[in-house]
Amino acid sequence: MSGNRHEPQRRRDMAALAIAAGLLVAGAVMLWDSARLADLGGYSGVGPASVPRVVGFALIGLAVWTAIEALRGDFPQRPAQNIPPVLWIVAGLALQLVLLHLTGFSIATGILFAFTARAFGKRNLAMTIPIGIVFAFAVWAVFSQLLMLHLPAGPLEHLVFPRG
């Protein structure tokens, strides 16, 4: 008996092809950029361009693999995207970028924290903004005061650690 099953023909996954193209571009840019670095591998052969080359080739390999799977139609069907949470996160990132030098790291990142929490279902911004500011201030203090790395300071940071 021959099995005459009619399987539905799978279509090309255009979203996966777009992702493959993005991976290919990212890998090519990394290879191009690593070619401009001085090859100071010395006796070991490992220099500043080694890791970017490995990552570039890996991205190109992933791009080829993704494109093959997309052309075969082997990716599972994805559920519809829930747009409002994505917009909350994008709005939080945009606000952080706009407010970073005006309000400082802690307040801008606290707002990003609250907007991201909102995207994940926590609706009370009046609670999540202060919590986010406290966490972000702790991160700022560790990086700025202990590790001596520069993060933008705002009024809150200057209040606790006045300029000396």
Automatic annotation (TrEMBL):
Transmembrane helix is among the record's keywords: yes
UniProt domain DUF1468: residue ranges: 18-152
Chain segments annotated as transmembrane: 55-75, 87-115, 127-149
Tree of life domain: Bacteria
Pfam families linked to this entry: TctB
Keywords: Membrane, Transmembrane, Transmembrane helix
InterPro entries recorded: DUF1468 (IPR009936)
Protein name per Swiss-Prot or TrEMBL: Putative tricarboxylic transport membrane protein
